[in-house]
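ok here's the first one, seq then struct tokens
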Amino acid sequence: MTSPGPISAVPLLRGALQWLFGSLLAISLIGFFLAINGMQLTSSGTAQRILSRATADLTEIDAILPTIQADLVEVAEASEEDTVIVPHFPMAVELPREEAATISTEELRSLLLSEAAEAIYKEGMSVWALADPEAEQSIDILSPEGGVHRGLGFLSDDNHQALRIAAIVLGFISLALAGLFLVSTQGMGRIVALGAALLGAAVPSLVTAVAVRFAFRTASEDQEDYLLMRLLDLGNDAAWLTLRNYTILTLVGLGLVLVGLVLVLLEMRQRAAPAAPAAPAIGNGPAEA
């Protein structure tokens, strides 16, 4: 009698490989999705919209804009230079002298916010001190202001490029692990396994995104400082992007699992069905006397 040991070891080895490759795939997908979300947040359009809103709150531009415009007109009329610097704005923004004398309030507001957002996105939060070369930024990193400073500083072109590289690398790693994971799985169970790996990456990320958004909302409601409340609301709005993405990924993973289960049941039913008896061949029966 032959020993059943080597034969019974094959399913155990296959199961161990499934767990190994599935776990590694889920971890890799978590990093990949995180990099993709970071890419979206730090993309030029999204990041500069957030930075523009933050600049409007930080500078209280709507309150000081009439003064800025009035003094800008005076500076333009008194200057003989081709360009003038917008006064009372904590960032050096230059305008052609003729445009400075005729620009409307809405155009000036839009210009200042877009210029500030673009400068922060390309050069970082240090641009706030460029209007005053002797200014120094001293912010407690553990304070709410420090959190705002780090959050806005994250929205930069340099971080976007770094996240792009990370997403490409993690994408290739995830593809390789997905291939190994599918090879270690049999039949229609591959679809269930792939959906389960996607859920393993999306569900924890979704829970984290919900917790972060809840933290922003709670902190905003309990905040007495109006400026910090507005900035926390901005963070809450930005967190919606990741919450939406992880919700979609969770639904896709759940859909793959359900579809895979249906196909597995159909496959099992097809295997269990008895084979139809073969019809007798014509002309092969016994000859009649």
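and now the second one, same deal
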Amino acid sequence: MKQFRHLIETCGKRTSCALAVFLATASGAIASQPQPWQTYTQAPSTVVADQVMLFHDYLNVLIFVISAFVLGLLVYVCIRFKASNNPNPSKTTHNTLIEVLWTAVPVIILVIVAIPSFKILYYSDRSVDPEMTIKATASQWFWTYDYTDENLTFDSTMVEKEDIDKTTQTYLLSVDNPLVVPIGKRIQVLVASNDVMHAFFVPSAVINIYGIAGRINEAWMEFTKEGTYYGQCNQICGMNHSSMPIEVKAVSQDAYDAWLKEAKVKFAAARAPIRVASGTINE
């Protein structure tokens, strides 16, 4: 009996925890990384993500209305035209009005969806008058970030499991040198690859751009709030595909300026000499 009571209490606690997590995720109050029992998208962190989430919620309402209408129509037909209520069914095979409606209404719905969809598509396509530019170059299996305006370049690799600080880091998501950006700045992101196809994917920022060798693709992001946002390469880029995370730290302008000053010292390195036939030349 005691064991049974303990089992009931344990199940109750676990159910309560699961329900709490479900309600938190369903309300959008989630962290910028995958969560247990997560049922909703990650909370938006950029201006593009805010627009996409508004469009997402708009579509949910539209889908609900359409589904409710179709369900109501099915229930009405089942009741109105069942054998007991309609012993002599009509032999009509065509109805011009109905055929026009079931052709025109879906077209109107598609137009209603297409207009805001194209607006967001073009809005998020490429940055206009960016305030800073970052080039992200993918390699098997790490990222190289180049702050082109600051002459700053560094590599970003995943923190191994044995080196993880469990209080501040997450295995398979945390990196040794995260990408640090200021909030409120329009940032142009150029994505390239040194080898196979990769992808720069940060869900909370709604950014997903392929990195292809010999080509530079473009996206942009403007973070609206401070925080740490995680992503990863979502292309199957080889044996260590799962070991290529992206960690973005969005900070205030003052914090970014302080980090930039330290980073220029931390990642400073003398350029390798170029050897030519007549001697050595340093550029």
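notes on #2: The chain has two domains: 47-86+94-125, 132-266. DSSP finds four helices and twelve strands in the chain.
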